[in-house]
Design brief:
This protein has a single domain, classed as Ribonuclease Z/Hydroxyacylglutathione hydrolase-like (Metallo-beta-lactamase, Chain A), CATH 3.60.15.10. It is 22% helix and 28% strand. The chain is built from 8 helices and 16 strands. A 7-stranded mixed sheet has the order 6-5-4-3-2-1-16. It has a 7-stranded mixed sheet with strand order 7-8-11-12-13-14-15, with helices on one face. The two termini are 30 Å apart. About 3% of the residues have low confidence.
Length: 285
Amino acid sequence: MKAILYTLAMILLAQSTPAMLSQESRDTCTVTYIANEGFLIETKNQKVLIDALFGGIKGDWCEQPGDSLSSKIIHGVAPFDGIDLILVTHKHVDHFSEPMVIDFLKNNGKSVLICPEQVNEMLRNNADYSKVSGRIKSLHPGKDFDTSLSVRKMKVRVMRFDHGVYILTDSATGKPHNIHSGVENFCYLVESDGFTVFHSGDCSTSDTVHFAGYGFAGKSIDIVLVDRTFLQREGMDLLSRAFRTKNMIFTHVEPGRAEYYRTAIKGLPEMSIFAQSLEKKIILK
């Protein structure tokens, strides 16, 4: 594992170093952890929430924001005021809550939502859907879906990747079945104030076709947010081929396991794992 991580680190750092500037004079992008795969991304003029509007899940199988934090987000309390864009990667409850998204849109009149059509179908069940539907951009992706939108002076590239595999035995046939095969899972590439941020959703480490086909190799991306399942040989090899970045943040960490994964990336400052809500990382240009 250490050898794989070291090799990836060397690849990530093999980039030209920007001209030396004082920290005060350089542009910044602040990444704030909410829970699970939820983040607030702030640049000079824009704010983006990704997979941050969820909660109230029974059990302790995933990290989720507390009620107080969720209330602040929904009501636009700083730093969650003036949110320009909300992104939802897919319909699962640890990424998206229908009533929370609707309430957020009602309380934050400038925010625009981008989501898969499967998410939009769930939103339509809400009695207040018509009040906010004009600010919902839902996309119905085919297998190799790849499109770009312009929202609030940001360029947002939306790509469908296979969701991570979860095999269960079909009760009718007795055969193994991937229950996530039909999930519309989006990955987003957001360009905001000169920064480029990639969020993987729950994309599969086995989806080598789309990682190659969408053409990331050789492109510099400021921040890469990826599922912690990439912290193994197949995933790390895939990331090393796909991205050039100095900031890779691993997400979707199980409750109480952050320190375990931090041990795996110890000594590699370009890689991060957040352990508590509202932890931040500031990236400089």
